[in-house]
Every structure is written in C-alpha cells, then in structure tokens.
Amino acid sequence: MQKGQNEHQLIHRVNAAKINVEEADQLIRDYMPFIRTETGKFLKRPPVEGRDDELGIAMMAFYEAIGGYSKERGAFLSYAAMLIRSRLIDNVRKEQKHTYDVSMDAPLGDEDTTLADVLADSRNEQEERLMREATREEIAELVAQMKGFGVELSDVADNCPRQQRTLEACRKALQYARENPALLDELLRTGKLPISSLSAGSGAERKTLERHRKYMVALLLIYTNGFDILRGHLTQIMKGVTAK
Amino acid sequence: MNYIVMECHPGYAILLDEAGIFCKAANLNYEVGQTVKDPVLMKSAPEKAKARSSKWLRSGIAAVAACCIIFLGLGYYQEFVKTYSSIYLSINPQVQMELNRHGDVTRLTGTNEDGRTLLAGYEPESRDKVEVADELIDRAIEMGFLSEGGQVSISLDCPDEVLFEEYGVELREGITAYFDGRIVIDVTITDHRSSAPEGTQVSDEPPAEAAEQPQTPAGSQTPSQPQTPSQPQTPSQPQTPSQPQTPSQPQTPPTGSEGSNYGDTNYDDGGSNYSEGDDGSDDNDDGDDGGNSGYDDGGNSGYDD
Q: CB-based contact (8 Å) between B18 and chain A?
C-alpha cells in the first residue's frame, strides 16, 4: 500500500517536472542516491562525483526519463534505470571508437612523464579564465534580456529547429535581420519579434518563424549590441545562407 | 565542433554550438561560459518515437478512411450510377433510357434526330422509368410524333429474363393505365438483345422468329426454306403449300385476320410471352396444329401478297 502511494507521488512529481525546470532539478537532486546506485551497478564500483563522467551521463539519462515517461512504460524508476543503463552502454561504445587514440596521460618510456608533460601547454590559463568570465557575463545579460521576452534557455533548447530546412529558414530570417538593423532595434524597443517583416523580407514561412519564436528571439538578441563573444562563437551559423 | 556552456542544471547543461544550435547535454562538471568539445548530447528519442507512432496512427486512420470512401463510392456507383439495363423507346423518335440497378433512370439519350428533338429541353420530374416513359410519350403526342392508333415500341435490354419480364409488365401496365381513355396507342415490348436488328423496324417487318415459323407445319425437316411457293419444281420439298400432290399437308384455311395482324399479335404478346417463346417453338416442333397452321398460312399469304 505504502509502495503504491510512493509510486503515485513519484509519478505526480515526474509529471510536474516535465513542465517545470526547477521541479526537474529538484527531482534529480532528490534521487541522486538512486542515480549513484544505478551508475555503481554499471561501473561495478561506487562512482566518484566530479571524476566519473558516467555519473553526469546517468543524471542526464534520469532527466531524459522524466521527459519521456508515460504510464504505459510501467514504473518510473524501472524505466529510469533502464534508460541510465542504455545511455551508459552508448557511452562505452562511443569511447571504444577512440581506443586507439593516443592518450595525453599515457606514460612515455620508463620515466614518470606523460605526453601532456612533454608537449608545451599552448593555453594561457589566466587568459582563459578571463575569457570564461566575460562569456559568463554575456550569457547572464542574454538570459536577462530573454526573460523580458518570457523566454528561458531551456525553452530555446527545446524549441530549437531539428530539421535542416527549418534551420535554414530561421537562418535566412536572421540574415535578413542582420542586413536590416532597424528590425533588431524594433525587437529591443517593442519587446516583440517582428515576424511579419522577417517573413516578408527573408522569404521564410511565417508559420515556421512563429513555431520557433523562442529560438529566433535568442538568436536575434545575440546579434544585437553587447554579445561579441557569443557572436564570435557562431562561426558557422551563416554558412550557405543567402537572404531573399 | 566547439560548444559554449550556456546554462548548467544538475541533470544536464545547455550548450550553444558554432552553428547556432542550442542543445542539452550531460553536465560533465561544466561551468557556464566554458567552451567544451565532444559533449554527450541528450537524445530526444522518446519524443521522436511518440511522434513517429502518432504519425503512423494518423496515416493508418487516413488509409482506412480512404478505403471506406472508395468502397462506399464504388457501392454507390454500382447501385445508383452504373447503367444496369436500358429501355429503348421507339415512337418514331427513338430514345434510350439508361437505368441503374434499382430501375431508376440515370440518363436519357436521343438515338436519332427526332429522339434528340423530343428530349430537347426535357427535364424529367422523376426518375421512375414508367413516369419518364409516360412523359416522353406525352411529349411525342404534343410534338406531333404520335397520334391516335400510333405504335410505341419498347425494347428492353436487361441482363436477365426475370428483370425483363418485370420491367415489361410494369411498363405495359403503367403506360396502358396512363393513357387509358385518352388516346389509343399500340404498345409493343421486345427484348433488345435478341431482336436488336429488327427493333427499329417494328412497324414495317415481322420479327425474326415470325419469319422463321411459317415452314413448321409439316416441314419440320426443312425449317430453313419457308418460301417454297416460288420453287414448285423441287420434289424434295413436299411441304410447300403450292404443291397439290402433297395430300398430307394440313389445309388450314388462311385467315385474313391472322395474316394481317401477324406482327401486331406477336408484338402485343411479346412482353408477357417472351419467355414462353421457346415453348412456342417446341410446340411447333411437336406439330401443334393450331399454332402452325396460323403461322404458315399467314406468313405465306403475307409474303405472296
């Protein structure tokens, strides 16, 4: 009886977590012991947090289980355990493809040195830390601006086009907006995505832009002033795109 | 490809790749702003599977619905649209009435010039074959194609005998009742399939079986030579009426009424007796005197005249 009640409560939480990011995060935190146990079963040893990537993959699999669960799949925890195991197996297979790659940590000869020690470290840690800090600030600013449009990064990731054709339509609209900065100003001024102008100017279907509004908002905001690092990162976004 | 870590959650991180795609991936101790390579991207398989299954379901439902529509449409076509039988109405205007399986008129076609004139501007008030036939005969009377004592020949093209009899009786009774007391017309009903060549010559020539029947009285051995009066020199044909030396031949006196009404008699009874036509010929073979004598004399006298 108690078990049935717990299962019922868990399903209730899973359903809430499907639509609420915070609920999902909290559910994962609450079920970390379960996730660790399942990862340990696979590794045949207790996973070490911060060192074993498998734990991160298992947590992602648990999150996937939240999104993909329905009553027809049986008990949630059984489903989550199955998904965790599947993802860990996928990861092992992926890693096996790189078995013959030379490891930077492999010892060289009889000495206690590795390839990483021999090769000069081209990265400037200080510079990298500064760059990461600047990027983090830009992202924080972007997230704040997106909030003004009622858009969160999780929404954008879920709303991101999957098909190449849709992606190209969105990129066409973006290209048109970049060529007509007045549209970007209008976006910031009105707080609304100028779908009609973008559609008419770029030739992208209005319905496509409406369906991916959140994604378009995020992209257009990145191309307004103040996001140089993020814009610099998007080196491939305009490949092969020509506006109408 | 490089990814910038945009947001971190316990179960996943949101990354932005260089092509502008936001994606979720396993959070392998990432920090926001960090640039990473080869992340473990989250699969959206369950949603895809759901979408695929619902797509299959929708396709299946659409296919079943299409099949139902086709079957219903085909059934409707077979029952109500496809021509199952035809009525050829000959006054002088000739009209073909196409009927569906239920006997309703589906199409009217004028098969000669007068027929087309008769149908010009005609809109049938009902699809009932008898009513349409009545209306067409009415129109023929109004347009001067048919007058008192005129003849209306109805030739039925039906796939089976039962339907032929049913339609024949129905049309005969319906038309007779409709014009009863108004005008006297002669209605003849024939089978279009067996009498098609003669169908249009109803008022001019006797039907095919009538032409074949005269020789039957004593000459069952030579059924194909009924016109022997013109060949008196053929001793091998003793059945010819013109040969006085054949005492065995029954001397049935030619009745004028039978001779002149030959065609009419056959036609009038054609509808109801058509299925009995075979019986009649059997009778002839058996040497039924009444029938044979009548046909023989009538036919001969008619042709001699």
A: yes
Structural domains counted in chain B: 4
> Where are any strands of DSSP class E within B42-150?
85-90, 94-99, 105-110
Q: What residues in A contact B34, CB-CB < 8 Å?
A: 132
B103 and B184 in a single domain? The answer is: yes
Amino acid at B142: E
User: Is the CB of A132 less than 8 angstroms away from the CB of B34?
Assistant: yes
Strands (E), chain B: 2-8, 13-17, 22-25, 35-37, 85-90, 94-99, 105-110, 151-157, 186-191
Specify whether the CB–CB gap between B140 and B94 falls below 8 A.
no
Chain A, chain B: beta-carbon pairs less than 8 Å apart: 119
Q: What is the pLDDT of residues B241-250, one digit of tens each?
A: 444 444 444 4
ipTM of the complex: 0.85
Task: Decide which of B201, B230, B265 is a domain's last residue.
Answer: B201
Same domain, B141 and B173: yes
Task: Give residue-wise pLDDT tens across range A15-61.
Answer: 999 888 899 999 999 999 999 999 999 999 998 888 888 999 999 99
- Cα distance between residue B179 and residue B152, in whole Å: 12
Q: Is residue B212 within 8 angstroms of chain A, CB to CB? A: no
Q: Establish if B10 touches chain A: CB-CB under 8 angstroms.
A: yes
Domain A7-96 adopts which CATH fold? Rna Polymerase Sigma Factor; Chain: A (1.10.1740)
Asked if residue B175 and residue B92 are part of one domain, the reply reads: yes
Ranges in chain A annotated CATH 1.10.1740.10: 7-96
- Asked, for residue B74, whether it belongs to a domain, the answer is yes
In which domain, by residue range, is B29 found? 2-37
Residue B26 contacts A where some CB pair is shorter than 8 Å:
yes
CB-CB under 8 Å, B19 with A60: no
Q: Which of A27, A29, A49, A64 to mutate against chain B (most B CBs within 10 Å)? A: A64
